[in-house]
Amino acid sequence: MKKILRYFYIPFFAGLLFLASCNPNTDDNNPKPGAGSADFTSYVAVGNSLTAGYADGALYTSGQKVGWANLLSQQLQAVGMKTRFSIPLMPTEDGVGASEGSTGIPVLRTKFVLGYTTDCLGNKTLGPVPANPSTSQALLYYYLITSVAQAGPYHNLGIPGIRVTDLFKTNLAKTNPFFTRIAYHPTDTLETYAAKVKPTFFSLWIGNNDVLGYAASGGINYITPMDGAAGTGFKASMEAEVKYLTGLTTEGIIADIPDITSVPYFNTIPYNAIVLTKQAQADQLNAAYTPYNNLMTALGLPYRIKFKVGANPMVIADKGMPLPDSLSNLKIRQMKSDELVILEMPTDSLKCAGWGTQKPVPDQFILTESEIKTVTAATDAFNSVMADLAKQYNLAFVDFNAIMKNIDKNGGVTVDGIKFTTKYITGNLFGLDGIHLAPRGNALVANYFIDAINKKYGSQIPKLTVSDYPPLKMPAK
Question: What percent of the chain lies above the pLDDT cut of 70?
Fold first, then answer.
């Protein structure tokens, strides 16, 4: 079960994350569709959970159907695609996802929907809730492990949770249930499955999980190393995959990975979430932290913990503080404004269990300044490899990292009268897990792929009208 959780939790992920460097208008004077120099007869999509259509914390039927790769395949039918874009659909609209239980043991659950919950203070709030909390663990596990290989081969090879190194692993079917579902043999490698649909065009969007696993764990899990052979190192693995795919067809598109620290999963809960309404509360906390502050002064270290009426930075655990092991219990401090909080941090613990005030928020829920720098450096390095490979093999390329930075700078993009931002729930781009795309977000991303393909191959693939796709469904009051 612990292995299963990794493939639910990371994907989640994997992923993430996209807006626009320019306004992807869908009105291009309706040019006549055309393939240009590309052959779209058979399209294969290789990637992780984003390509799979994973959404709202689970893999479910309608989410897979509205995934960007499937939407792109629908548009390719106007420019010569002949084969059906087959998807290994999960046989339930409620979906299958997983979360950490209170004991640390993974708990399978359905997808998230918007609903009302009551917090530890008795306040009713709107947020994500399981679509069907009464679904049994046995039934969810049945959905998860039931093979659909006989209906393959599949054109959508988006496998939630995979890193680029996983493409070459002979034990992937034994460790990742999403690949287990479609695998013909337990020792098959995912890489070889692209050839089964005889592709004339491919998309490759992978690499998110190679940094997301580290970021989503608050810096506890690992980032895929750059160096090492295919199956171990990022560079060699990406080079081997592109070489393999271009051996099947010389036409395709690569997408890079955006800065995942900008997605709602990391930027929804503010660093200064401790709100005090009375001076007596601040005075009591300040008195309790006086010995800590005095010690830091004596050690010549800059750390101080101080509270006031209003919003205050959370007290967090930081194993990276320069203190001797004998003072490991004092490796705590208040958050900095540029540090990030994981969306899955239990906010009831802030409200009712003293987290962030009397008790430090555990390290796994925080991305510290140094950890963010690590994520950013790895993202930039990985993206450089992908951009170079797209140029080397003369492929189309989508620079989602640049797109995301531009969106952050401009505060959103408006397409078909809909404004897309990175805000949780209201931003139209991301779903309820804070990492994966909402239906309109998938349509927007598909249009960016179309833009890049049209530019590279001189094709005229018609774009999607993003307003045709539904927003998040609000619950009845």
Answer: 92
Long-range pairs for 99-108 at CB < 8 Å and ≥24 separation? 99/8, 99/9, 99/57, 99/344, 100/5, 100/9, 100/344, 105/1, 106/1, 106/2, 106/4, 106/5, 106/8, 107/137, 108/137, 108/140, 108/141, 108/144
Distance CA 309, CA 281 (A): 8
| Closest listed residue to residue 245, CA positions, set 209, 206, 192 | 192
Question: The tokens of 7 are what?
Answer: 């493939």
The number of beta carbons lying within 10 Å of the beta carbon of residue 179 is 24
Can you tell me the distance from the alpha carbon of 432 to that of 352, in angstroms, rounded to the nearest whole number? 24
Please answer whether residues 452 and 253 qualify as being in contact, where contact means their C-beta atoms are separated by less than 8 angstroms: yes
Phi, psi dihedral angles at 195 (to 5 degrees):
-70, -20
Which amino acid, residue 82?
Answer: K
Contact 174, 16 (CB under 8 A): no
How many Cα atoms sit within 13 Å of 362 on the Cβ side? 10
Domains of the chain, earliest start first:
2-265+371-468 (3.40.50.1110), 274-342 (no CATH)
Query: Residues 178-194: pLDDT tens digits?
Result: 999 999 999 999 999 99
Amino acid in the structure at residue 98: A
- What is the dihedral angle through the alpha carbons of 172, 178, 183, 185, rounded to the nearest 10 degrees? 40
Q: How confident is the model at residue 105 (pLDDT cuts 50, 70, 90)?
A: low
For every residue of 37-101, DSSP letters joined together read T---SSEEEEESHHHHT-BTTBB-HHHHHTSHHHHHHHHHGGGT--S-------S-SS-BEEEE-
- Least confidently predicted of 61-70, 253-262, 308-317: 253-262
Residues 205-218: tens digit of each pLDDT: 999 999 999 999 99
Alpha-carbon gap, residue 235 to 229, rounded angstroms: 8
Query: Could you give the CA distance from residue 150 to residue 254 in angstroms, rounded to a whole number?
Result: 29
Is residue 276 a contact partner of residue 346, using CB atoms and an 8 Å limit?
no
Give the integer Cα–Cα distance in Å for 460 and 453: 9
